[in-house]
Design brief:
Helix content: over 70%
CATH topology of the largest domain: Four Helix Bundle (Hemerythrin (Met), subunit A)
Radius of gyration: 38 Å
Number of domains: 2
CATH architecture of the largest domain: Up-down Bundle
Structural class: mainly alpha
Order of helices and strands: HHHHHHHH
CATH class of the largest domain: Mainly Alpha
Distance between the termini: 45 Å
Oligomer: single chain
Number of strands: 0
Length: 226
């Protein structure tokens, strides 16, 4: 491996002619010789580097071998950089594929199931409010709650089906809290259907409102990583 740049030591471009190399050597050897008039210019270590550089570059055959070694080193470095780039690209691709798969098989189905639970609530409560003691209206409302339970269970199973990618951690956290709020909300509303105590209905509606906000935050977080 070439560890020093003889061209830089002789203050030359790599395309310098042999005559240029010779002139540069004599100039620098005189400038840095310990016996030069200025003591500050006398530098034994630098003179040794100048001599070593000229020993290689001053000999056309040795210079050719040196250039070949340098080119090989540059090629190897370029190859290493390319390999590292390809590795990073493959890692990023795997990460992107994992995110795409999670969105398709977990996030999107859960988001749709949450919508099926939350969206009808206002209309269902309005229908029931016509006469909460009407058996048919209450039965229809309880059917809605049962459907909510089924959708919630499917969403929870989807959530557990695969770990979320690291870049979707905030999305997953909001989904998790959203599902918890929905579950608590359903329980509160179900208590209302048994007791006709409006406080349970109001609490359930508030929990659904919170879950709706968490769903919006999950959507916003998702947009931020796409």
């Amino acid at each position: 491996m070439v560890t020093s740049n003889h061209y830089k030591i002789l203050e030359l471009h790599e395309s310098a002619s042999q005559a240029d190399i010779k002139r540069a050597y004599h100039r620098l050897a005189k400038q840095h010789h310990p016996d030069s008039r200025s003591d500050s210019n006398g530098d034994h270590e630098h003179i040794a580097k100048i001599n070593a550089a000229y020993e290689v570059l001053g000999d056309p055959a040795a210079r050719k071998r040196y250039d070949a070694q340098r080119d090989g080193g540059r090629t190897q470095r370029a190859s290493d950089i390319s390999a590292q780039y390809q590795q990073r690209r493959k890692a990023n691709q795997r990460s992107d594929d994992s995110l795409t798969h999670w969105i398709r098989t977990v996030y999107n189905p859960i988001d749709r199931l949450i919508g099926k639970i939350i969206s009808p609530l206002k209309a269902e409560v309005r229908n029931l409010s016509a006469d909460p003691f009407d058996d048919e209206l209450m039965e229809s409302f309880q059917d809605y709650l049962e459907n909510c339970r089924e959708s919630l269970e499917k969403a929870k199973q989807k959530f557990k089906s695969m770990p979320n990618p690291p870049q979707a951690a905030k999305v997953a956290a909001n989904l998790y809290y959203c599902l918890n709020q929905i579950e608590d909300g359903i329980e509160e509303i179900e208590r209302f259907t048994f007791t006709y105590d409006d406080s349970y209905l109001h609490t359930g509606q508030e929990l659904f409102r919170i879950s709706k906000q968490l769903r919006r935050e999950a959507k916003a977080d998702m947009q931020a990583i796409l």
